[in-house]
Write a structure and sequence with these properties.
single chain; alpha+beta; outer membrane lipoprotein receptor (LolB), chain A; 12-stranded mixed beta sheet; two-stranded antiparallel ribbon
Length: about 250
C-alpha cells in the first residue's frame, strides 16, 4: 500500500506500543469432455483467471469500505523496533478486542456496550507511568481488566481508522500500477490472487468477495486479514474480573 513501508508503522503516542498499521474470479468456461451415451458427464471445474491488479484492487477497496467487522494480525518491524498487534471486532470499534506489544510491554483492550476495559502488563505500566506507579497499579489490577471512561488515552485503535491510515482508498488508483507480477496461489488452504510490486506483496481472495487477505513488505513485516464480516460479538468480562482505578 501507499504507506506500508514508511507510514504504516504507527507509534501510539500514549501507549508507547508499536502499531501499524487489505474472490473475485474471472471464470473461463472449459468445454466438457466427451460423454458416453447413457452416462452423465462429470462436472468440469472452471479455470480461475488471475485479473490485473487494476481490475481487482478497486473491488478489494470497495469490499473493505462496506465491511462491518474483521480480524487483523500483524508482526511488524521499523528499524530496530519490533511490534505485534491483534485487532478484531466491528470496524467502528464499538465491539472489539485488541492486543498490542513492543518488547516485553503488552496491553489488551476490550470495548463492549460503550464501556472500555484495558489490561496492561507490568512492563507496559512501567513504561507509561514509571516503576513506582506500575508497582502500585499492578498490585491492584494484576491479571484483571481495568474499566476506563477514556480509552483514547491508551491510543486510538480501530479497524476503520487503521484502514484509513493505510490508504486503502488508493488501492484502485496509484497502487495498482506498480504491481507487475501476478499469480494464483494457495494461502492457508484458500485460493488467493498474489500481486507483487516493488517491496510489497498482496494476497486477495480469489473466491467470493475479493477481500484483502495478507500484506507483506520487505523489511517491514506482515499483516493478515480474516473474518471479514464474520467476527462474533465480544462479551464484557465478569464483574469479578474488573477493577476501577482513579484517573483511568
Amino acid at each position: 500500500m501507499k504507506n506500508f513501508k514508511n507510514g504504516t508503522m504507527l507509534l501510539s503516542a500514549t501507549a508507547g506500543v508499536l502499531l501499524a498499521l487489505t474472490g473475485c474470479s474471472a471464470a473461463a468456461e472449459q468445454p466438457a469432455g466427451p460423454s458416453n451415451a447413457g452416462t452423465e458427464a462429470a462436472p468440469v471445474q472452471a479455470e480461475i483467471v488471475v485479473p490485473e491488479a487494476k481490475e481487482i484492487f478497486p473491488k478489494a477497496s470497495a469490499a473493505m469500505e462496506k465491511a462491518t467487522s474483521a480480524t487483523i494480525v500483524a508482526d511488524l518491524t521499523d528499524g530496530s523496533e519490533k511490534g505485534k498487534f491483534e485487532l478484531s471486532g466491528t470496524v467502528d470499534g464499538t465491539n472489539a478486542q485488541s492486543m498490542m506489544s513492543r518488547g516485553d510491554a503488552t496491553i489488551e483492550m476490550l470495548t463492549v456496550d460503550k464501556v472500555s476495559y484495558v489490561k496492561p502488563n507490568k512492563a507496559f505500566l512501567t513504561e507509561r507511568a514509571g516503576a513506582e506507579a506500575a508497582k502500585m497499579l499492578d498490585s491492584v489490577a494484576a491479571d484483571k481488566w481495568i474499566s476506563t471512561k477514556n480509552a483514547s488515552q491508551f491510543g486510538e485503535f480501530k479497524i476503520d481508522s487503521l484502514l484509513e491510515a493505510m490508504g486503502t482508498d488508493q488501492l484502485g488508483t496509484t497502487e495498482a500500477a506498480k504491481f507487475t507480477e501476478k499469480a494464483l496461489t494457495d494461502l492457508n488452504g484458500a485460493k488467493a490472487f498474489k500481486y507483487t510490486g516493488g517491496d510489497d506483496t498482496y494476497w486477495i481472495a480469489a473466491e467470493g468477495e475479493p477481500h484483502l487477505l495478507k500484506i507483506e513488505g520487505t523489511g517491514t513485516g506482515t499483516m493478515t486479514f480474516s473474518e471479514w464480516n464474520a467476527v462474533k460479538p465480544y462479551e464484557a468480562p465478569a464483574k469479578s474480573d474488573v477493577v476501577s482505578v482513579p484517573g483511568l
